[in-house]
Amino acid sequence: MPIPRPALRASLASLAVVALFGCDLLRIEVSEQATTEVPGAGLLGGLLSTLDLGDLDDFDVSVEEELADQGVEPGDLRSVELLSFTLTGDPDLGFLAGMKVFVSADGLAEVEVASLGDVPDGQTTAELTLAPVDLADAVQAGGLRFRVAASGDPPEEDTLVTAEVVAEVVATPKGACNAAKR
User: Fold this and answer.
1) How far apart are CA 160 and CA 150, in angstroms?
2) How many CB atoms lie within 10 A of CB 9?
3) What CA–CA distance (Å, rounded) separates 63 from 175?
4) Are 40 and 157 contacting, i.e. CB atoms less than 8 angstroms apart?
5) What pLDDT does 49 receive?
6) Percent of the chain surpassing pLDDT 90
7) Which 3 state secondary structure label does DSSP give 155?
8) Rounded to 5 degrees, what are φ and ψ at 81?
9) Residue 127 lies in a domain
10) 90 assigned to some structural domain
């Protein structure tokens, strides 16, 4: 069956725009950071309370702002994949026996995006193992939330924990063309 002329014209026009502007997928790195204090238990010990990294909940806003700065519309988002999730502890992260990080968004089920095993005493930095999850739907849905499930004994002294998340955001060729026109 031959392609109808209007559809053929639209396809050729799209190809011409891509050829003219050299539009490929637009790739942007976006990062977000959160810091929390884990209260020390002193010598008496205790239970590890929740590790609150709520500041990461602004991650979807950072992605949207970065895309808007590039002239990319929300519907032009192709994928959002984590490149790294790093924890830094001051004085150290040795109190962590394990950790899982989950992401949810309005109307979407929670998914595990990163995990960490036992951290040796004295270690100040840990790189989490990333799950192969595309967060584009979660970013577009809005209301992105990170939830951390951590296990271990609380540190002896108050500990500052900083989490840094870096993701690659990929826009469609249409979005890349919009960015190229800016």
Assistant:
1) 15
2) 11
3) 14
4) yes
5) 58
6) 39
7) coil
8) -125, 135
9) yes
10) yes
Instruction: Return the number of other C-beta atoms located less than 10 Å from residue 134's C-beta.
Output: 14
Q: Where are the alpha helices (H) located in 46-105, listed in sequence order?
A: 59-69
pLDDT at 179: 65
Q: What is the dihedral of CA 150, 152, 155, 160, to 10 degrees?
A: -20
Helices (H), 22-135: 59-69
Rounded to whole angstroms, the Cα distance separating 131 from 116 reads 11
Helix, strand, or coil (residue 20): helix
Whether 133 and 113 have beta carbons less than 8 Å apart is answered as yes
- Name the nearest CA neighbour of 82 among 151, 20, 169: 169
Q: What is the number of domains present in the chain?
A: 1
Q: Residue 43: give the domain boundaries.
A: 23-181
Amino acid at 52: D
pLDDT digits (tens, 9 = 90+) for 143-170: 788 888 888 888 889 999 999 999 999 9
Distance between CA atoms of residues 26 and 95, nearest Å: 40
